[in-house]
Amino acid sequence: MPSETLSVPLDESSFQSVLCVAAHPDDLEYGAAAAVDKWVRAGKTVTYLLATRGEAGIDTMSPDRAGPTREQEERDGAAAVGVDVVDFLDGFSDGTVEYGLALRRALARQIRIRRPDLILSLTHEESFAGGGLNQADHRAVGLAVIDARADAGNRWIFPELVDEGHEPWSPKQVFACNDPAPTHFVDVTGHFDAAVESLSAHEQYLTALGPSYPTPAELLSRILGAGAEPLGVEHALLGRLLG
Questions:
Q1: Across the beta sheet with 184-187, what order do the strands follow?
Q2: 81, 195 in Cβ contact below 8 A?
Q3: Is the pTM of this model over 0.90?
């Protein structure tokens, strides 16, 4: 992480509404929920959109049970940071999400419905900050978000969306969290406990990962604390600002 990129705070006065987009329930809880808690408390409008219901994410639970379980855990995690609108796309399966026109269209539709100033997503790069490999669904959704942002603002791309009553909308920017080459950060000092509560709501998912898996507090200490010290803050959400 180049040190000069870590000194740039995200201009939080430049947006009032945020659409948070991720592939699975729990993705937004690995750090982004701290920023969400900050923004909701500041009076901003924040909504969630998940591409899947995470139905393939619990080895000990069949997809037909895991999907509803994880959907509810996501709603509970969102509620912990003040978010009461959580939408799920239909037609995309956990573990096999493919980048393509269908995904871009579905995301563009939701962008036009929610009309956010900022889209928060996860990085589409092959690895996260810190070097961990990024999963296929994350990469597909992360890249599609970038393209859907442009699609949503062009009435001649997916013109059927206009026929459905969804007029074009152009979000100002995309903030891709946990990117290996971050350009901006959000100071989330004071919002760590809310983020822990949000991740802890994914109880059955986390339990299935086994007793050796780090606790929510341990995980978030690493994610939100690792890059914060050079910035002079206690906790920070790092990401790459696009657009």
A1: 86-88, 45-50, 17-22, 118-122, 173-177, 236-242, 184-187
A2: yes
A3: yes
* Residue 130 neighbours by CB under 8 Å, 6+ apart: 180, 222, 226
Give me the amino acid identity at 221: S
With a cut of 80, say whether residue 6 has pLDDT above it: no
Q: Where are the domains of the chain?
A: 3-242
According to DSSP, the β-strands at 17-22 and 173-177 are unpaired
Q: Tell whether the model's pLDDT for residue 7 goes beyond 80.
A: no
In the structure encoding, which two tokens stand for residue 62, read together? 């069949």
Instruction: Please determine, looking at this structure, whether the domain spanning 3-242 carries the CATH number 3.40.50.10320.
Output: yes
d(CA 169, CA 213): 41
74-123 pLDDT, tens digit per residue, is 999 999 999 999 999 999 999 999 999 999 999 999 999 999 999 999 99
